[in-house]
Amino acid sequence: MESSPSVWESRIDAARRGDRDAIDELFHGLRAYFHRRAEQQLDAHLSVKVSPSDIVQETFLRAFEGIAGFKGSTRGELIAWLQGILRHRLQNANRRFRGTDKRDLAREQPERSSGSWNIDGAPAKVETPSRVLMAHEELQRLEAVLRSLPPRQELAIRLRNELHLSFDEVAQALDCTEEAAQKLWARAVKRLATKLNTSGGAT
User: Fold this and answer.
1) Maximum Cα–Cα distance for the chain, whole Å?
2) Statement: the pTM of the whole predicted model exceeds 0.70
């Protein structure tokens, strides 16, 4: 899906009017992002009972049912609305499974995808094993450092760099002013670079 605000606004308007294709396109473009958010926010003791994919599926199902009543018109407002639904689904999952039997979490821990940073394109052909391993390790290191940032800083980078939102839209998603969003993102990028340099020099 194109990332220009006008295209998103057009799709959101069509989705509110019941256009299934527009709804599918909106959710498809945000699925990977919300899967990462669900992974981050899902309590460790719940990860053996419910998967991030299930939580995201429930989130989008509730969003589909309520999209006609969505009052926003921009990407930022849509993401903020979906984040509220996601948070609700996570709370429900926690209540649903609280107090259930405790099992060996290490043995039952599901595998999770390691790559989450948005890299343009993919190799046209298979690289040598050593180069593939190096690229994979770099991606893992970047993701680990990104996740170590304070939550709002991490979210600012993901919204701006992964979803390519404008600062106005980032501000809507974070419920702050555009100036505050710009400053938050700048601090986050600076902190990310510092941590990457530090972790890189330590290895």
Assistant:
1) 54
2) no
Average pLDDT of span 26-48: 82
Span 81-127, pLDDT tens digits: 999 999 999 888 888 776 554 444 333 333 333 334 443 333 444 44
Closest CA to 53 of 68, 32, 83, 76: 32
Which of the pair, 127 or 67, is modelled with greater confidence? 67
Tokens matching residue 48: 């053996």
CA distance 33 to 163: 8
Q: What stretches of 42-125 show up as alpha helix (H) in DSSP? A: 52-66, 75-97, 105-108
In order of start, what are the domains of the chain with their CATH numbers? Answer: 1-97 (1.10.1740.10), 128-203 (1.10.10.10)
Q: Angle at the Cα of 137 (from 133 to 143), degrees rounded to 5?
A: 145
